[in-house]
Each structure stands twice: as C-alpha cells, then as structure tokens.
Amino acid sequence: MAAIIMDGRALSAHLMPELRAHVDELKRGFGCTPSLTAILVGDDPASRQYVKNKQRVAGELGCDSRTVRMPSADATTGALLKVIEELNADARVNAILLQLPIPDSLDRFRLFDAIAPEKDLDAIGASSVGGFYRGQWGRFIPCTPRGVLTLLDYYRVPVEGARAVVIGRSDIAGKPTALILGGRLRNATVTWCHRHTRDLAAICREADILIPCVGADTGRPYLITADMVKPGACVIDVGFRRVGPGIFIGDVDFEAVKEVAGWITLNPGGTGPMTVLALMQNLIDATRYQLGLDRAAYSV
Ligand code: GUN
C-alpha cells in the first residue's frame, strides 16, 4: 500500500490564516508588529535562499524582517558578538536568527549564548536548550523539531511509546528532535544515530518513526533506501542538500520508500516549509513574551 504523503506546503498554507490572526491581534491590540532580524555570514547560496524564504513568509504575514549581512572575511567572533549585542538592545527587534552554518573558525557556542533568551527563536542558547532538555516547552522549541511535531500531530502519527530513530546531531535539527521526541513532550523511545553508528540499516528497520536529518553527501545516492524502512513506518525527511545548480535532494529515496512506508514527507515541500512556519510561530511567541503574554495557541 502506498504511503500517506505528508505535504508541508499544504499544511503550512492551511495554518497561515491562524498565524495571520495572531499577527493582526498584536498589531491592533498592542500596536506591535513582530520583527525578525537574520544575521547572514558569507555567501552560501542555500543560506541566502533560506533567509529569502523566511523573509517572504514574514512579509506575507505582515511582519517586519531584515537581514544583517557580514562577508566571511570580516566575520570574527568579536564582530558578530557586537552585532548580536546591538540587536539584543534594540527594542524594535523581537527575534534574532543567526543563519547556520557559520564558518568553523567562529566560536559558535559563544555566539549562540550571546543571543538574548527572549529573542532566541532557534532555541540554541544554553538557557533556551534547558526547556526542552527538561521535557518542557520552555520559551521556544527549535524551528525544525517544532515543524516536525506539527506534521506528526496533523497526520495523526502515533508517537507515544513508538520507536523513533533520529539520524544527525546538528544543534538545530537532529539533536533537539531526538531530545524532544524522547522527552515528556512526546514520550517516544528514541535511538539517536550519527556517522559513527554501526549497522544503521538494521536500526532504521526497527523504527516506527524514522527521521534522517543529515543533508550531506554520505557516499550513497540516498542515505535511506526502501530496504531500510519497516513497512508502515512514518518517514520524515529533514535532510536537504544541493547536488547541482538548482537541484536539491533529501536523505530519503522518496520514490522507492513511499511504496513501503505508512507516511512519508515530500522533499522539497515537507519539513522545509514547516520549519519556516515554525520560525514564524516562534517570532509571534517572542513578540508575545515581550508583551507579557503566553505563547500563541493553534488548532494543530
Ligand atoms: N539553517 C537552516 N535551517 C536553519 C534554521 O532553522 N535556523 C538557523 N539559524 N539556521 C538554519
């Protein structure tokens, strides 16, 4: 039986009116337009495209957004700390996003921790991580896992007690996704895999929910092939990489895996649009927190 296709573009479009209503409430009720500032280091085409997508959706919601660009040659930890401190102090900026990846020469954790916690919509600073580490919502759930949770909830995938396998250890995708699914927010039983994992295929075959978040060349055309998927499993493809001009692929061999899985995300068009939607939800929440309100509620 062919899988249910999890369509992130359609789900995002379905939820946009709810986000718009929250933005309108902030504008009309509080005279406050949610405002996002992205910091973009260097000239990576994929990062530029991500930031452009985020700004387009912010515009569609009637939010303000701008980008601070810094050429790689000027990007020292000190220079970026100065930018972050200025944005922290600027009351017109509700949320700050340091677009990743950043060059390895930078002290990433010092930069993450410098972002004011109430503006840290990626939840990458040490004090933001504490919330979901403890199995609570905290201030923010990072954007990729928040989008994954919305997909799982909307498509009614059973998560509690299920065996989930998450592949990847990035600070914004694999690591928080593994912690959040396995914690008290969702109660799955998580196996967390990475490049040193032995016999990945056998572990994947045990997964009720399989979430590869790699997005890098692993020497195979696709990291996840149909023989690695348990029949009926839910496969959420977070990986995304450029393999040629304008050509992007995920970690999963979609055409073959959709014949085995119970659910599968499109990619492109699955977790990408949901990550952007989650970013906007976090921007709305950041603005609400700064006004002394609770986080916004949604139907999913
Ligand atoms: N690069 C790709 N996705 C993201 C994201 O959600 N947040 C940040 N900061 N960088 C990214």
Can you walk through the features of this model?
- A six-stranded parallel sheet has the order 1-11-8-7-5-6. A three-stranded parallel sheet has the order 3-2-4, with helices on both faces. It has a two-stranded antiparallel sheet with strand order 9-10.
- The two termini are 27 Å apart.
- The longest helix is centred in the N-terminal third of the chain and has 23 residues.
- Helix 3 runs parallel beside helix 4 and helix 6 crosses helix 7.
- It has two domains: 87 residues, Leucine Dehydrogenase, chain A, domain 1 (Rossmann fold, 3-Layer(aba) Sandwich), CATH 3.40.50; 131 residues, Rossmann fold.
- Strand 2, helix 2 and strand 3 form a beta-alpha-beta unit.
- The chain is an alpha/beta fold and 300 residues long.
- It is built from ten helices and eleven strands.
- The structure holds guanine (GUN).
- The site of guanine (GUN) has 10 residues, from strand 4 and helix 6.
Keywords for this entry:
Rossmann fold, three-stranded parallel sheet, 10 helices, alpha/beta, six-stranded parallel sheet, 2 domains
How many beta-strand runs? 11
Write down the overall geometry: globular
CATH architecture of the largest domain: 3-Layer(aba) Sandwich
Bound molecules: guanine
| Computed CA radius of gyration, to the nearest angstrom | 19 Å
CATH C-level name of the largest domain: Alpha Beta
Given the helix and strand composition, which structural class is it?
alpha/beta
Q: What name is given to the CATH topology of the largest domain?
A: Rossmann fold
**Overall pLDDT level:** 97
Q: How far from one another are the termini?
A: 27 Å
| Uncertain regions spanning at least 5 consecutive residues | none
Share of β-strand residues: 15-25%
**Distinct helical segment count:** 10
Fourth-tier CATH superfamily name of the largest domain? NAD(P)-binding Rossmann-like Domain
Query: Which percent bin holds the helix content?
Result: 25-40%
What order do the helices and strands follow? EHEHEHEHHHEHEHEEEEHEH
| Order of neighbouring strands in the sheet with most strands | 1-11-8-7-5-6
Number of domains: 2
Oligomer: single chain
The major pleated sheet works out as: 6 strands, parallel
